[in-house]
Amino acid sequence: MIQQTLVLIKPDGLKKSLTGNILTRLSETRLDIIAAKIVTVSRKLAEKHYCHLKDKPFFEDLIKYICGEFHKKKVLAMVYYGEQAIGKVRELAGLTNPEEAESVSIRGAYGRITTGGVYENVIHTSTDEKEAEREIKLWFEPDEIIADIYPTKVVKEETKKKIWA
Ligand code: DAT
Ligand code: MG
Predict the structure, then answer these.
(1) What is the 3-state secondary structure (H, E, C) of 83-118?
(2) Please, which residues have CB within 8 angstroms of residue 26's CB and are 6 or more apart in sequence?
(3) For ligand 1, is residue 84 a contact (CB within 6 Å)?
(4) For ligand 1, is residue 3 a contact (CB within 6 Å)?
(5) What is the pLDDT, as a whole number, of residue 134?
(6) Pocket of ligand 1 contains residue 70 by CB under 6 Å
(7) Which end of the chain is more exposed for a tag (fewer CB within 10 A), N or C?
(8) pLDDT band at 125, cuts 50/70/90?
(9) Quick one: which atom of ligand 1 is closest to the CA of 124?
(10) Residue 82 β-bridge partners
């Protein structure tokens, strides 16, 4: 089954200069990258992304972490596309808890738990197709993705936008 999945290299991954290593590991999947951008994550975006965890005791630290307050204020957001994309990337990423993740997985190799209990697990990747759709639509506009993965519609926008001067 052809799928698409959201992949984020989190602020700790960028701060530790792990981008190249992580992209190399992800290239083992032979999946296609169909969107990529560097994002400064707003609190609003972070809260929407992690809305399913809002009642957890670690929620506040998780929001600070993804917004870059502990590292760099940026995330590399990408969409990977291809056969069984979701499972392939999740398997390479490893378990959520970096101490439990297999040592050869991305999280096992590069993640850590801080003394404050934050899981710095360097990468996010969607769990299933429903989550992937919600997350990709949250992080990307249709024009930022080079494949037609979900239905779109054309609307006339009247809002101001910045252009090159
Ligand atoms: P995943 O990122 O593997 O999909 P998730 O969606 O359950 O896992 O949780 C999102 C993030 O929240 C996860 O990457 C790290 C953090 N997290 C999850 N469980 C945690 C815990 N028990 N303590 C601290 N952080 C946790
Ligand atoms: Mg998740």
Answers:
(1) ECHHHHHHHHHCCCCCCCCCCCCHHHHHCEECCCCC
(2) 7, 80, 89, 92
(3) no
(4) no
(5) 98
(6) no
(7) C
(8) very high
(9) 2
(10) 3
In the predicted model, what is the mean pLDDT of the chain? 97
Q: Model-level pTM?
A: 0.97
Cα separation of 42 and 163, whole Å? 22
CB atoms under 10 Å from CB of 44, counted, come to 8
Q: Is the dihedral of CA 32, 38, 106, 24 positive or negative?
A: positive
For the stretch 89-112, pLDDT in tens is 999 999 999 999 999 999 999 999
Q: In which band, very low, low, confident or very high, does the pLDDT at 157 lie, cut at 50, 70 and 90? A: confident
Domains and CATH numbers, the chain: 2-144 (3.30.70.141)
Could you confirm whether 71 is annotated as catalytic? Answer: no
Q: What is the pLDDT of residue 84?
A: 98
Map tokens 């290239």 to a residue: 27
